[in-house]
Amino acid sequence: MPTISGLRRRGFTPEAIREFVKATGVSKGSGVVDSAMLEHFVREDLKLKAPRTMGILRPLKVVITNYPEDQVEMLDAENNPENEEMGVRQIPFSREIYIEQDDFMEDPPKKYFRLFPGNEVRLKHAYFIKCEDVIKDENGKVVEIHCTYDPETKSGTGFTGRKVKGTLHWVDAKHAVPAEFRLYEPLILENEEESEDGVEKTFLDNVNPNSLEIVQGFVEPNMTVNPQEKFQFFRHGYFNVDPKYSTPEKPVFNLIVSLKSSFKL
Residues 6 or more apart from 29 whose CB is under 8 A from it? Predict the structure, then answer.
């Protein structure tokens, strides 16, 4: 609900709310402001403050078959490309990782640049990997991907031998921290006075059944997950550590806003 308490728990910052109020101005009459305007100010406030990290909301395991089984490599990753003062962190990389389920398709359409059989993509901050095999369960569902990696393609080495069009985020399976993600959509859908059969709708008819979706995934290790800490998860959006349900063993992240918006000030 759009209350100060609710906004705070979602992760809306005081600075963003104040800038929103300034931009809307003062009027004697009633008015309506698009909620996307408030979300715009949240993005503007967090883009230089929130560390960038990688979180997997719907995991799919990838096994890199030609990577040494017992090896763990620490890779450098910038905390915020738009704010160099935030420095770099190190993230573990090993034989088994998780990627997003929708970053793989067995039979992709044209212009699909993520992972599919025979295709090569870059793992962010890491290496090129190529899909070699697909493992399915008894129901035909894809449960594991087998890939190979090219050690010459390590990020930051200046490799220019070839290019790939897709870059995927990932989390090392051996060190991944289980996490819960709470994804929000508007509670109330756009009001329509009449339904298709001409019957007037009530308030309850406009409640969004998909206003909250809870998914279980993983995040990078060694993250600071104190209540109200804010992060940008690559390709997903800005998230806030829930102050009520989050624990050090299993953090809970509330979606503040997605990364993109059509709103223009």
Answer: none
Instruction: For residue 100, give the CATH number of its domain.
Output: 2.40.240.10
Q: Are residues 214 and 191 in the same domain?
A: yes
Distances (CA, A) of 82 to 46, 79, 199, 229, 257: 11, 9, 52, 19, 18
21 shares a domain with 77: no
Per residue in 213-242, pLDDT tens?
999 999 999 888 999 999 999 999 999 999
Q: Report how far residue 163's alpha carbon sits from residue 166's, in angstroms, rounded to the nearest whole number.
A: 9
* Residue 207, strand partner residues: 188
Around Cβ 58, how many Cβ atoms within 10 Å? 14
In sign, the C-alpha dihedral spanning 88, 92, 95, 97 is negative
Angle between helices 14-24 and 35-46 (to 10 degrees): 130
Which structure tokens are listed for 64? 């890199």
What's 157's DSSP letter? S
